[in-house]
Amino acid sequence: MAEAVERGTSADELYDEKGMPIYKDSVLKTVGKLNKQLGKYKKDVLLTWLFVALETLCEILIPYLMQFMINSIDKENPATINLGEVFLWGLLMVGLAICGVVFGIAAGYWAASASSGLGHNLRKAMYYHIQDFSFYNIDKFSTSSIVTRMTTDVTNVQFAYQMTIRALLRAPMLMFFALIMSFVTAWQLAFVFLLVIPIIGGLLLVLANYAHPIFVRIFRTYDRLNEDVEENVAGIRAVKAFGRQTQQKEKFNKTSEYINRAFVKVEKFLALNSPLMMLASYICILVISYFGAVLIVQNVGPNNPIGTLTTGALTSMLSYVMQIMLAMMLVTMVYTMIIMSRNSAERVVHILEEVPDITSPENPVMEVKDGRVDFNNVTFHFKDNPENDVLKNIDLHFKSGAVVGIVGTTGSSKSTLLSMLARLYDVTGGSVEVGGVDVRDYDLKVLRDAVAVVLQKNMLFSGTVEENLRWGNKNATIDEIVQAAKWAQADDFIQNMPDKYQTHIEQGGSNVSGGQKQRLCIARALLKKPKILILDDSTSAVDTHTDAMIRKTLQETMPGTTKFIVAERVLSVKDCDTILVMDDGEIVAKGTNEELLENCTVYKELYESQLGGGDFDVVAE
């Protein structure tokens, strides 16, 4: 096997030099992992198997009874036909047929219930599990890949499971008992099945080896297709502004066309399955019909080693041919579905087995006393790049209530540093303490309730303004919500909305401006009444007057809260108690605005380039 190499698009997947995944688990082991998600629907699977067994038994008995009805007719002397015996056998067969239909309907119902329940449980388990992922875990999966796994892949698994749980028992039972009954009925002719079945089994193995790698590539490409759609829809304004509609269409068509060609290629091969099965059925029928007719016509005596054959037995044998071929076709269909859904099942299992690398300890601290912050010789590197430290020897200490500004060049790891406070990432060296306790010793929910973060990329969710603000505190009163909005300078524009706090926010906050979105996110964070507040360049889209009003209000209303303000704008941080200047993951200068103007060339150049030596931070009374 070719040496495995890492690809960065999926979690814990290894690929050979041809780009094909190398999986450690067998199909049965993967199915076993999925079955753990059945929960209460295990009962439905057992009921499915019960009714499938009863349905199959009815189908097996009908051909066997048919020979007795046919043999009860004396063709040489029709006058002696016992119609009562004929009707008796006929009624028995009709009764079995009706029972078979009822059992089949029941099996279909419970199979649908079990597969739908499995799909529901898989989506729920994946969604809940993703909520526990750290940034590192999320980075291992692209957003489009996660969406594909929770939709297309789960749907494939669900459909395959519904077919499999019915055919898993039906096909082997039908084949096994039909073979037994064929030997009981006419052993001389039943040996033909022992030749046909291994040949068909070999064809199934060829089918699997050819089709599975193609389906793997198809579903990997589905991730890229969803990514193209997601990017285009989310960035539709940029697409139109730059006139890139044609290029985006070509990009989408290229990916879509590849999926189309791959599906056509594999379906052409799979399409051979049905004709080959029918050919095998017709060959069996012809062979059995010919040799069965010879045995009947020759009327071989009972002492002959090959025995005798009746017309009814030959008719039953022809029925068993169709049943055995039907069982083989079921096996083929199920096998094809397993081939198609195997990669989907493995991709779902990858999500479920991904271990969050940031979790609460066994005996966590359940209270954050205050907003004191200590960075004790902190270093950090991303797991996929251990050679490159993005934070280097950060040693900082701030009392509760301090106001800390952070400026620096783009990519200087300002946001990464503050991500350590809420354990969005864990340090790889040193420690981070909040309230005098290492953040790794806190219960995650307790810690994150005490640390409010307004990220660089502001995110609003579909729902009303009030519902979005309640993310900060679901039990907040309407008065508290309005007060938080006023502190964030958001109440004025909310009052001008059609339904005020009940105005609907579209997905991603597309119906509000960038500045309004930032102020709503700040209000949401303030509603938590946190011990630590992190504003990560979260006022970049508001005007300087509003920015100053927000900072002034925060200073007056939340004096005990430690505030970290990351900004590209010097005006946003110049009044902070301490200002940190970062470059390439290091603190290159620290002090007040006046101290940095005297001692830090980088800060002075940044200050003068933005303010021209003047102070434009004018706040209305």
Characterization of the model:
The protein starts with a strand and ends in a 10-residue tail after the last helix. The chain is built from 18 helices and 15 strands. Helix content is 59%, strand content 11%. The model is unreliable at 1-22, 300-306 and 616-621 (pLDDT under 50). The protein has 621 residues and is an alpha/beta fold. The chain has helices spanning 27-35, 42-71, 83-131, 135-140, 143-234, 236-241, 245-270, 273-298, 311-353, 414-419, 444-450, 465-469, 478-487, 491-495, 514-526, 544-557, 593-599, 601-611; strands at residues 5-6, 14-15, 21-22, 373-380, 391-398, 403-408, 429-434, 437-438, 451-454, 463-464, 504-505, 532-536, 562-566, 578-583, 586-591. It has a 6-stranded mixed sheet. Strands 5-4-7-8 form a 4-stranded antiparallel sheet, with no helix packed on it. It has a 3-stranded antiparallel sheet with strand order 1-2-3, with no helix packed on it.
Structure keywords:
621 residues, alpha/beta, six-stranded mixed beta sheet, four-stranded antiparallel beta sheet, 18 helices, 15 strands, elongated, disordered N terminus, disordered C terminus
Measure the end-to-end span. 75 Å
Helical content stands at 55-70%
Q: Output the number of helix runs.
A: 18
Determine the structural class based on helices, strands and strand pairing.
alpha/beta
Structural topology:
Layout: E1 5-6, E2 14-15, E3 21-22, H1 27-35, H2 42-71, H3 83-131, H4 135-140, H5 143-234, H6 236-241, H7 245-270, H8 273-298, H9 311-353, E4 373-380, E5 391-398, E6 403-408, H10 414-419, E7 429-434, E8 437-438, H11 444-450, E9 451-454, E10 463-464, H12 465-469, H13 478-487, H14 491-495, E11 504-505, H15 514-526, E12 532-536, H16 544-557, E13 562-566, E14 578-583, E15 586-591, H17 593-599, H18 601-611
Parallel strand pairs: 6-13, 6-14, 9-12, 12-13
Antiparallel strand pairs: 1-2, 2-3, 4-5, 4-7, 7-8, 10-11, 14-15
Helix pairs in contact: 1-9, 2-3, 2-5, 2-9, 3-5, 5-7, 5-8, 5-9, 8-9, 13-15, 17-18
